[in-house]
Amino acid sequence: MSPSELAAELAHARRRTESLLEPLSDEQLTRQVSSLQSPLVWDLAHIAHFEELWLLGSSRHDGLYDASAHARAERGALEMLSPVEARSYASDVRARVLERLPELAAEEPLVAMVVQHELQHGETMTQTAVLGGYPVPAPGRPPDVTASGDVLVEAGPFTIGSDDPWAYDNERPAQVVDVAAFRIDRALVTNAEYAAFADDAGLPWQHSSTRAPVEHVSFTDAAAYAAWAGKRLPTEAEWEKAATTAGNELEHLRGAVWQWTSSSFGGYPGFTAYPYAEYSEVFFGDAYKVLRGGSWCTDPLVARLTFRNWDLPERRQIFSGIRCARDA
Ligand code: AVJ
Ligand code: FE
């Protein structure tokens, strides 16, 4: 991408951040609404800190806005920049980045990471807004399910991952993998379907919008639902193969809810951390489960078919739902 195209992507990410935060009061920006989420003003200054660190070479706020230095639950007690200070920090960093863009264009993956980092925090901040009962960006909920039935994906090789400059380290290197035949549902699981399972399992579950995809389910809930329905969750290789070879037959691949897979988060063979191990590598192992697709508030620039999201199996604050699969 040219410097001006990169500038446009940076501006797009900033507009999303600003439109999300603009309707909120200083009190809403500084309050910690959940131990799972940072105060919104921490996210804002952290976005600026990340951009300063990776695109300008060092950060004036080392430590305070380093995600690995402070657990989310503790961030409400930190001595943070105020909303007005955080906004001016972010715009000051951005102005200096724009001056350096002609040189930075040679390091497109770094700029791509910074743009996508801001967009991903936009989704994290939207989770916070939902938990806090604050105004959230449109559409505010996933679109209704209309599809039914499933699709057979024949056995055979396909290319998983991506070597695109915008792909994260955890998507690289693209490689051919073999996948046995399987079937995958065309539709996401609806609230009505999930309610029948919850009723049987004695789980508390209430939702008025029966045709909407179920949202805010944990991995554990999703796997239990799939087993109850006589199905299973897809592996992430199955999900990506279905998405890239039969994607037009699957409803709401992205733009509705993230879809849990049965896969743990790990590096593909040949993985190398870029630009730092704390982005992906420290989360590799059995603890984290992979989600694929994208939600109603995931920016299309992030919601690539190769993009890998991850969270702990008990987490429900994310916009997560279910698409089932089964053996062919
Ligand atoms: C990819 C959503 C799991 O929020 O921990 C934000 C994204 N990484 N800042 C996360 C991220 C660094 C990441 N997820
Ligand atoms: Fe971050």
Structural notes for this entry:
- This protein has two domains: 3-132, Four Helix Bundle (Hemerythrin (Met), subunit A); 150-327, paralog of FGE (formylglycine-generating enzyme) (Alpha-Beta Complex), CATH 3.90.1580.10.
- Helices cover 37% and strands 11% of the residues.
- With 328 residues, the chain is of the alpha+beta class.
- The mean pLDDT is 96.
- The strands form three sheets. It has a four-stranded mixed β-sheet. It has a three-stranded antiparallel β-sheet with strand order 1-4-9, with helices on one face. A two-stranded antiparallel ribbon has the order 2-3.
- The N and C termini lie far apart (42 Å).
- The longest helix is centred in the middle third of the chain and has 25 residues, at 108-132.
- It is built from eight helices and nine strands.
- The chain has helices at 3-21, 26-30, 40-56, 83-104, 108-132, 191-201, 219-228, 236-246, and strands spanning 150-153, 156-160, 175-179, 182-185, 258-264, 289-292, 309-311, 320-321, 325-327.
- The structure holds N,N,N-trimethyl-histidine and fe (iii) ion.
